[in-house]
Amino acid sequence: MNRFYGTGVAMVTPFQADGQVDYEGLKNLINYLIDGGLEYLVSLGTTGESATLNKQEKRKVFEFTAEIVNKRVPLIAGLAGNNTYEVVEEIRVFNIPGYDAILSASPHYNKPTQEGIYQHYRAIAEVAQLPIILYNVPSRTGSTISAETTLRLANDFTNIIGIKEASGSFEIFSQIMRDKPEDFVLISGDDAITLPMMALGAVGMISVSGNALPRQTSDMVRLCLQGDYKTACKLHSSLVEFTRLMFAEGSPAGVKTALKQLGICGDVVRLPLVQVSSKTAEAIIAETKKIVAQSVPA
């Protein structure tokens, strides 16, 4: 499981002005992130606006991403949905070379019971050819994967290897860390609280902010893994305002604004998402410039 220690980034999907996928921008982003020292990448998670891509677009993005990554870092595919049978079939036939695991969010909108969530992931685990990472993100799905359900899945299926936790509940985090199998990993899904989660035993994070600031975010996480929380806290504090701005008007519009400022790709998002307001854009640009300037050696 050491492949998923450290910092992963849930990559944005760059779009051209006409809304088509910007593959040159995606190539720029992938190389920027790998050069920035990230440990692994996630293709077409929530941050990748996967809900607004059709099946053909998703497959092309998955294939292109694997080609550009070229096994330089581990790669995770985001495959999820609220129709269990459709998700199971999508995962069953997923055969694109270059991927090391699947990140699958709990079903959204349906608001299943804990037994429904368990059975959803059981159906996935029984057909998956790659390891599965659960994803608990109640702010988007409308339901929470309880610690009990996470632990039940972790103990019942050896190919369910970890969870990306974005519930914000330290009660859930603590219970998972206390009772989980030794090789089951807890990964932060919330940039803002990664440091305290790692103090509890999380092995890193899957970041949104890291799209724009891969070096800074991955440095902080590595310091935590080394037990140097004093230095890590300084880096964490320097990123607090940037992280807040990334979500001020929704993700990934915020981080795409920063990426445009950095010259990596454009800031176009697909409806129903829209670009951030001019006021928020100005604040993001200013904070991005500030952090980049502070990071340049004197």
TrEMBL record:
Annotated Gene3D superfamilies: Aldolase class I
Active site feature: Y135 (proton donor/acceptor), K164 (schiff-base intermediate with substrate)
Pathway annotation from the record: Amino-acid biosynthesis; L-lysine biosynthesis via DAP pathway; (S)-tetrahydrodipicolinate from L-aspartate: step 3/4
Keywords: Amino-acid biosynthesis, Cytoplasm, Diaminopimelate biosynthesis, Lyase, Lysine biosynthesis, Schiff base
GO terms for MF: 4-hydroxy-tetrahydrodipicolinate synthase activity
Annotated site residue numbers, Part of a proton relay during catalysis: T46, Y109
Catalytic activity: L-aspartate 4-semialdehyde + pyruvate = (2S,4S)-4-hydroxy-2,3,4,5-tetrahydrodipicolinate + H2O + H(+)
Pfam families: DHDPS
SMART domains: DHDPS (SM01130)
Binding-site positions, pyruvate: T47, I206
SUPFAM superfamilies: Aldolase
Enzyme class: lyase
Subcellular location field: Cytoplasm
Stored InterPro entries: Aldolase_TIM (IPR013785), DapA (IPR005263), DapA-like (IPR002220), Schiff_base-form_aldolases_AS (IPR020625)
Protein EC: 4.3.3.7
CDD domains noted in UniProt: DHDPS
Record-stated family: Belongs to the DapA family.
Listed NCBIfam families: dapA (TIGR00674)
Subunit field text: Homotetramer; dimer of dimers.
Stated role: Catalyzes the condensation of (S)-aspartate-beta-semialdehyde [(S)-ASA] and pyruvate to 4-hydroxy-tetrahydrodipicolinate (HTPA).
HAMAP family given in the database record: DapA
The protein's name: 4-hydroxy-tetrahydrodipicolinate synthase
